Amino acid sequence: MKALNRCRNGWELLQKKNNVTNPAAAHLVTDQKTLDELVERLSKESVLAFDLEADSLHHYTEKVCLIQVSSASEDRLIDPLAPIDVKVLAPIFANPAIKKIFHGADYDMRSLYRDFGIEVVNLFDTMIASQFLGESEFGLAALLKKRFGVELDKRYQKADWSKRPFSQEMLDYAMKDTSLLIELYRQLEAELKQKGRLAWVEEESELVAGVRSPSREGELMCLRFKGASKMKPRELAVLEELLRFRDEKARLADVPPFRILSNDLLRELAEKQPRNNFELVGIHTMSSKLIERLGRGLLQAIANGLAVPQDKLPQVQSGRRPVLDRLQDERVKRLKVWREAKSAQLGLGIGLVANNTLLEALAEPGSQNISLLKRWQREAFGDELASLIS
């Protein structure tokens, strides 16, 4: 009965905020005056829900293409590609008196800072919250369906949000992403308080709020290629040239690099190192059209990689874990047994309790390693761990 009432409340909230006389198109903010008025209203709220839509699957340089925001009384869609100054939202995001609700905020934090220099204070991530409540499915669609009986249309998850104008269906989809987030937050917060885990989620959310995209300037592209650690230095040199070639083509065409050539194909080219068109034909995923369009450039990139001097070849650091001494190895085993039991006791995934890197660090000699724990971990089971490793 309680679940049924939640579903009814969810539908009633959606209908109240987004009724048929108030279509989503009317909620789209595309001019500065409307945005300024919205910011003034939002500044008076204590809780706001946000989401972003971007175009990373469709363009070379990804960008934020839509900002969804909901308060307890209204839903709005802000178009950052319109002639408006999105940075007027910065004081709201920085205001510690306003709780900002996101779901899976890692990417959003990176994007807001990258595009607008916006930093978020007082973040609450509903995905993290659901994980700390032991939810087995913590995607937004699964949570909204379970708690409110609302289903999200997944057709637009990979849409090109940089295209204008928006279809009515896309706007409706975007508004649903935040329209129930505040109610979801309230439910999760109440359950976390009951379990004594609210501070845990607040600490984890605070850490996510500080996440930023690392600088890649001067870094070899091949070193962050999946599977690079298993490739030979000469293959890596060829791969580096192929990646640079693909990246330049993608930049000129304004598409993501994977739309030019797949990673699997680049790996095969780097390993087989064809020298001419005849050998290119032998690559089973190379179509005649692809050879005609890119063959000359690919062969030149391969030749450049083969010409790299031996002492200049890329080197990948081994991804293997360091060999542990006997004492440390025994401690890690004890800690893993403890983690399994603690995970079952708390109803949490083992990765939330403590990851392998943390356990190995804790197993090293020296009690100072307890300082590696987060605040909530020290409070929840710090004494247990200290006893185990002493």
Topology:
Blueprint: H1 2-17, E1 28-29, H2 32-42, E2 47-54, E3 64-70, E4 75-78, H3 90-94, E5 99-102, H4 106-116, E6 123-125, H5 126-132, H6 140-148, H7 168-179, H8 181-195, H9 198-209, H10 233-253, H11 263-272, H12 277-281, H13 288-306, H14 326-346, H15 350-353, H16 356-362, H17 375-389
Parallel strand pairs: 1-4, 2-5, 5-6
Antiparallel strand pairs: 2-3, 3-4
Task: Summarize the structure in words.
The chain is α/β, with parallel strands linked by helices and 390 residues long. It has three domains: 10-210, Nucleotidyltransferase, domain 5, CATH 3.30.420.10; 221-312, HRDC domain (DNA polymerase, domain 1, Orthogonal Bundle), CATH 1.10.150.80; 326-389, no CATH class. Helix content is 51%, strand content 7%. It has 17 helices and six strands. The protein has helices at residues 2-17, 32-42, 90-94, 106-116, 126-132, 140-148, 168-179, 181-195, 198-209, 233-253, 263-272, 277-281, 288-306, 326-346, 350-353, 356-362, 375-389, and strands at 28-29, 47-54, 64-70, 75-78, 99-102, 123-125. α10 (233-253) packs across α11. The radius of gyration is 25 Å and the shape is flat. It starts with a helix and ends with a helix. Residues 232-312 form the HRDC domain.
